[in-house]
Amino acid sequence: MTDLFNKFDMSQSSLGQHADYIEDYFMFPKLEGELGPRMNFNGKPVLNWSLNNYLGLANHPEVRRVDGEAASEWGLAYPMGARMMSGNTVQHIELEREIASFISKEDVMLLNFGYQGVLSIIDAVVDRRDVIVYDAESHASILDGVRLHMGKRFVFPHNNIENLEKQLKRAEKIANETGGGILVITEGVFGMSGNMGSLAEIVVLKEKYNFRLFVDDAHGFGTMGATGAGAGEELGVQDDIDLYFSTFAKSMASIGAFVGGDASVIKYLRYNLRSQIFAKSLPMPLVIGALKRLELLREQPEHKENLWKITNALQSGLKENGFNIGTTQSPVTPVVLSGSVAEACNMVYDLRENYGVFCSMVIYPVIPKGTIILRLIPTAVHTLEDVKETIETFKELKSRLDDGVYLREEILAVTK
Ligand SMILES: Cc1ncc(COP(=O)(O)O)c(C=O)c1O
Q1: Which one has a higher pLDDT value, 410 or 396?
Q2: How many CB atoms lie within 10 A of CB 320?
Q3: Average pLDDT over residues 93-100
Q4: CA–centroid distance, residue 257 to ligand 1 (Å)
Q5: Which of 42, 80, 217, 298 gets the highest tally of CB atoms within 10 A of its CB?
Q6: What domains are there in the chain, each with its CATH number?
Q7: How confident is the model at residue 18 (pLDDT cuts 50, 70, 90)?
Q8: Is the CB of 249 under 6 A from ligand 1?
Q9: What's the gap between Cα 346 and its chain centre?
């Protein structure tokens, strides 16, 4: 027997073992100043490509005004209690109706947080007789929801439709034995690679197999589709998505989330979604702030147009200069490079300190050893000058990486 906390040995943790020197810099960095492309990091100005503020609404003057007014009028407490008990308001219902109409679903239910919402939706819609089939590159909230499932689950390699069909055959066999149903889960836009889920191909399989489709469109809502209603709209399959989820944490630049579907399904969730039944209702300023954001999303298409102007300039500029940006179909822009974890840290240090560019870095163990991904998130409030500056910087950075500059021990103090 041992003390429970003995296992909290940081030297045994793949990321934790580096905590002493990566904290505050690579991990838990503090970006300061107004939210946007120009912020301060480590006491210096940086050109920032690390916020999921796709439409630039985080600092939109109308949004800031409405957030402030709602906070001063209502405070953060109102309404008290869970929706079901004492936490319902006209504004919560209005927001749900507005979102439902925007995403072309009969009804919508608000969620306090995306992560908890996804987990709880999965928990509410399946029981031990049911089978889950899900994409291997799904977000942690989906994976953790699947972990709660007491029945069978099958995973298909990312967007591999042939394999998905194989898993559906296995799932069908089990569901026939148990008398259960099948839930397929994927994403509209995958946040690391920028790939869209193969939704059109997946819904075709509905003709052969009896399953319900749950799509997490955290990165697609506001960025994809003619009106910004997301990946389902973009791919012409919104009606075939049985449970459409998104968070307010990205395009909506806030906190909260929602799930939309047929009225009977949403009604069932209202009475069975444990993350909402047993939690305080979303505070009023967040609801009123979300109504304003949704209004801007619907009535000011220029935000999405700017986002795509910047996205297209950034992605074509990177490709023309020989960079590998994977298979992205969305604003998410991964720049795939080769090198060790140490080289990645040294390169990002150089990028931030000497070139004044801030983006997030993805390294082993999140991706295979030897691969480095620098992930750029363009937004509507970046400029073409920002894109030019970044591409020039990346060209220099790549040649320094290829020259082995970042292999040197003393690189953490490098200057241009
Ligand atoms: C794909 C995906 N699903 C769910 C979530 C969780 O949303 P929230 O931040 O609202 O908890 C995120 C991240 O925010 C996400 O990227």
Answers
A1: 396
A2: 9
A3: 98
A4: 9
A5: 217
A6: 4-56+302-413 (3.90.1150.10), 79-282 (3.40.640.10)
A7: low
A8: yes
A9: 27
